[in-house]
Amino acid sequence: MKKTICAFFLTFLGMGLHAQGGLKVGIQAGLPFDDFNDEVSVMVGLDVGYMWTLGEVIDLGVTTSFIHGFPETFHTDIVLTDLPNVQFIPVAGAVRIWTSNSFSLGIEAGQAFGISEGNEDGLYLRPLIGYLMGPNTEVNFSYTSIKLTDKSWTTVNFGILHTFKL
């Protein structure tokens, strides 16, 4: 088993992959489900981070975001106008593994700070799959989870990210 894992790892190292280090700025939009499904209709976010390349396959970095959930206005024929916005600022470490020249798998993990009134902090986790559309532009699909004390913020997202090489 160890030989198989080692051979698999060395195969990826020798494929001539290129990582995407630098300043990353992007936007994301998503749909909530589970605990916030009745309170929030859609969410948007702004992502900023910096990634360092650790070879040709792995990037390591830090990231932060601003997540804004818009309140639901209609729910089973009853107009709800008193629901608040839901806002978080996650601060996280990030890892990306480039499986080819165009595809990456990644995860961000850290702490999300609730900044809207009545919102609390929680553990932040965001796995993602990225596709490089050009030398510096990527589209990605992700799942965001913020574990709060008595409920969880969960969304499925689509994002666009641009890398500025510094």
Helical/strand content category:
mainly beta
CATH architectural category: Beta Barrel
The value of Rg in angstroms is 18 Å
* Quaternary structure type: single chain
Helical content, roughly? under 10%
Low-confidence stretches: 1-18
The largest beta-sheet arranges its strands as 1-2-3-6-7-8-9-10
Q: State the CATH topology.
A: Porin
Number of strands: 10
Number of domains: 1
Query: How would you sum up the global shape?
Result: elongated
Largest sheet: 8 strands, antiparallel, barrel
Which CATH top level class fits? Mainly Beta
Beta content comes to over 45%
Q: Termini distance?
A: 41 Å
Descriptive account of the structure:
It is a single chain. This protein is mainly beta. 7% of the residues lie in helices and 63% in strands. An eight-stranded antiparallel barrel has the order 1-2-3-6-7-8-9-10. A hairpin with a 4-residue loop joins strand 6 and strand 7. The termini are far apart. The model is unreliable at 1-18 (pLDDT under 50).
Put the structure in a nutshell.
With 166 residues, this protein is mainly beta. It is 7% helix and 63% strand. The protein is built from 1 helix and 10 strands.
Helix-strand layout with pairing:
Blueprint: H1 2-13, E1 22-33, E2 40-53, E3 58-71, E4 74-75, E5 78-79, E6 86-98, E7 103-114, E8 122-132, E9 137-147, E10 152-164
Antiparallel strand pairs: 1-2, 1-10, 2-3, 3-6, 4-5, 6-7, 7-8, 8-9, 9-10
